[in-house]
Amino acid sequence: MPVDQSDITKVALLARLKIDEADVPQYVENLSNILSLVEQMSEVNTVDVVPMAHPLDAAQRLRADEVTETDQREVFQALAPQVEAGLYLVPRVIE
Amino acid sequence: MHTKTISQLSAALRSGELSSVELTTLFLERIKQHNPALNCYISVTEAEALAAAAAADVRLKAGNAAPLTGVPIAHKDIFCTQRVKTTCGSKMLDNFIAPYESTCTAKFIEAGAVMLGKTNMDEFAMGSSNETSYFGAVKNPWDQARVPGGSSGGSVAAVAARLAPAATGTDTGGSIRQPAALCGLTGLKPTYGRVSRFGMIAFASSLDQAGPITYSAEDAALLMNVMAGFDAHDSTSVEREVPDYSAGLDNSIEGLKIGLPKEYFGEGLDGSIARVIDAAVKEYEALGAVVKEISLPNTGLAVPTYYVVAPAECSTNLSRFDGVRFGHRCDDPKDLFDLYTRSRGEGFGAEVKRRIMIGTYVLSAGYYDAYYLKAQKIRRLISEDFRAAFETVDVIMGPTAPSTAFKLGEKADDPVTMYLSDIYTIAVNMAGLPAASIPAGFVDGLPVGLQVIGNYFDESRLLNVAHKYQQATDWHLQVPQEFQ
Predict the structure, then answer these.
(1) Which residue of A has its CA nearest to B346?
(2) ipTM above 0.85, yes or no
(3) Chain B residue numbers touching A53 (CB-CB < 8 A)
(4) Contact B316, B207 (CB under 8 A)
(5) Please, what CATH class does the domain formed by A5-42 belong to?
(6) B155 labelled catalytic
(7) Domains (ranges, CATH) in chain B?
(8) Which residues of B touch A95 (CB under 8 A)?
(9) How many helices (H) and strands (E) does chain A have?
(10) Cβ separation of A46 and B192 shorter than 8 Å?
(11) What is the block-wise mean pLDDT of chain B (484 residues), using blocks of 10 residues?
């Protein structure tokens, strides 16, 4: 198996995903199968190949440094689970 | 009336034969009748649709209508729409009402098209069967025990059952073409950057592209005339003139050079599908095209490479769903970490979590070069295969999918088998090329799609090639019996 239970626990932590203990073996199996599929890549010699970041090899467009967006805080905050006085609320971070 | 193409409906609206309100009402009634069984719409926007139809009728009477004015259309629930919820097929966005309109849907509003509703889809567009949707599986109108394909499964089922005359879809690894093939429709994935991604919820940003799902290539051209074009809001949008996609539909295809990649006809392809594709190619030869065998040697690497690139980009894109600013938040978080992990654990379904895990793994410290960088290099090799092929041929043809629609549940427990459903479509996204799937026949009563791949920005030629075939055949006009 390319990955084991401790890998799953570590990756879930990095991804900030709560995974039920009971589901870990299933993840081990699924991820191992997917990584075995992906393993076919290693058979290819890519020593002199330039990585392709964009299908059309386009570069980022630049624009003048001007304000183009207006303040829509209230519109955006209307979507939030919990706000108060224009602030997004989350559980206390510092005791 | 419900089986007519958009081109025919547009003419009928213009001549005053019927009004947009009448036409919209007809489709809303059909949705009420059939959607409970098919589950192709997540939201039906009846009141908004009737208001838009009434406004379209005013415009039609005033004589300043655009070709799609008054024509009903369904949008995949991945496009942000103001005032109507946009779920992306996920519990995470179950009650999300976007604060802005996607460029794609805004262009349809401007053209006067009438949105009937938002269609079901695999969660965050991750799936090939529409079974990963939080809102339940969609049924294939040709056989309701089977999947419609995915991820644009709701869009294709709605159009195939004539619950909308056309729909939008998005395609990251085949999500327009594979379901179009499985439901007997015309679907086009344009060149990467041709249609704006602004307001289209991101899955894998270097692969995602929106396109039309219609009965005919002629209708697809009408939708492309609205959708395509530069958008300053999308940093990967291409600044390039948009042709009139309807103008070249009738061009002769005498002497058209068709390449058949030998890798697309080998092991893994159902023999009965191969026979349908062979017959379609013979039809093209009868229309004057010249066929030659070509090779795309890195074809077999497309799926493995995709399952590094797409999950890596998805894990990055989906990190924005943190339960703080919008989307699902868990009850009673005990601290910030608990809020993040439980909100995401509850909000995302199994397949999305799997892909976030894979993406996080391949991007984690020590693995980046072995996986992501390696995949980006192979991506170039895949693109080079196509570049070489297009030096000797005008279009590439082959099957869209290795089999017809499979049964609900058949592949749901085996991710790798499901991923291989996209074996012929994924390379096109890796290269950023345009490609269409067009109906080419049936096997045991189930539709088969012919994939036509074009060179960069050659959508006009693809539509022309598809249209000429549709002038000579009537596969694209077949309607499932129950929905005639």
Answers:
(1) A18
(2) yes
(3) 206, 376
(4) no
(5) mainly alpha
(6) no
(7) 6-256+392-483 (3.90.1300.10)
(8) none
(9) 3, 2
(10) no
(11) 95 96 98 98 98 98 96 98 97 96 98 98 97 98 98 98 98 98 98 98 96 98 98 93 97 98 91 97 98 96 96 97 96 96 98 97 93 96 98 98 96 88 94 98 98 98 98 97 94
